[in-house]
C-alpha cells in the first residue's frame, strides 16, 4: 500500500538555530520542509513552486511575514499559512488572521503543538480544495443564468429551456462563471486564463479557443447560438446579456 504523500512546508524563520530545530521536528513528523532565513528568497521560490503550507515568522530581516503573505496574495499565490510570533499582543495575532492566514502560534511553543496545528490547517485546506472546481468556482456556488440557459456549479451541469441538462467540464464552467461575473465588460484572454487556471498557468490562446468551441457546440445542440456572447478577436470576450455595452472598432468598450 503506497505511503501517504508528505506535506510540503515552506518555513521562513530568521533565527537559524530555531529554523533547524523546527525543520528537524517537522521532518520527524513526516513532513518535507524548505527553510529560508529571510522573505526575499522564499518569495522567489513560492512564485514558481507549490507548498501545502507556509510557516511564517512575523519578524524577518527584510520584510515582515505579514508583508510576504500579502505580496504572494497580490501575485495570485494563495497558500494556507500559520504565523509564528514572539509578540503576545492580541492585535498582532488578529492581523495575521484578517489577512487570510489560517492560524498563529506564539513563541515559545512546544513542537508537538506546532505539529498538531499544522495538521489541523492541512486538513481544513484539503477540505476547501475538495470544494474547488477551478480557481474561481466552488461546487457550493449559486447557479447563474448564461446565454439562455442556467449553469449549476454544484452539479457541474447546464440546464436548458428544453428541460434537458448536460454535464460541463471544470474549465468550461470556470470560463462561463468568469464571463458572467464580468457581464457588460470586456474580459481579455489573459484575465480569463488567470481567473480560471491561476496567475502562473501556461495556457495558450489556441487551447482557450477550443473550450469556447465545445461550449458553443453544447449550446447549439439545444438550439441556442449564445446570444449576448461575443468574441473580440485579438482582444478577448464580452458577455453582455442586457445589450448595453458599445464596442469601438478596435474592440474596446466605448465610453
- Could you give me the name of the CATH homologous superfamily of the largest domain? Response regulator
Strand-residue proportion: 15-25%
Q: In total, how many beta strands?
A: 14
Mean pLDDT figure: 86
Protein topology:
Elements lengths: L7 E5 L3 H13 L3 E5 L2 H8 L6 E5 L7 H10 L6 E5 L4 H9 L4 E4 L4 H21 E3 L2 E2 L5 E3 L2 E4 L4 E3 L5 E3 L2 H12 L4 E3 H9 L7 H16 L8 E4 L3 E4 L16
Parallel strand pairs: 1-2, 1-3, 3-4, 4-5
Antiparallel strand pairs: 6-7, 8-9, 9-10, 10-11, 12-14, 13-14
What can you tell me about this protein's structure?
By secondary structure, the chain is α/β, with parallel strands linked by helices. It has 2 domains: 8-133, Response regulator (Rossmann fold), CATH 3.40.50.2300; 137-239, Winged helix-like DNA-binding domain superfamily/Winged helix DNA-binding domain (Arc Repressor Mutant, subunit A). It is 38% helix and 21% strand. A 5-stranded parallel β-sheet has the order 2-1-3-4-5, with helices on both faces. The protein has a 4-stranded antiparallel β-sheet with strand order 8-9-10-11, covered by helices on one side. Helix 4 links the parallel strand 4 and strand 5. Helix 6 (170-181) packs across helix 7 (189-197). The longest helix is centred in the middle third of the chain and has 21 residues, at 111-131. It is elongated and about 65 Å long. Mean pLDDT is 86; it is low at 248-255.
Keyword list:
255 residues; alpha/beta; Rossmann fold; Arc Repressor Mutant, subunit A; 2 domains; 5-stranded parallel β-sheet; 4-stranded antiparallel β-sheet; 8 helices; elongated; disordered C terminus
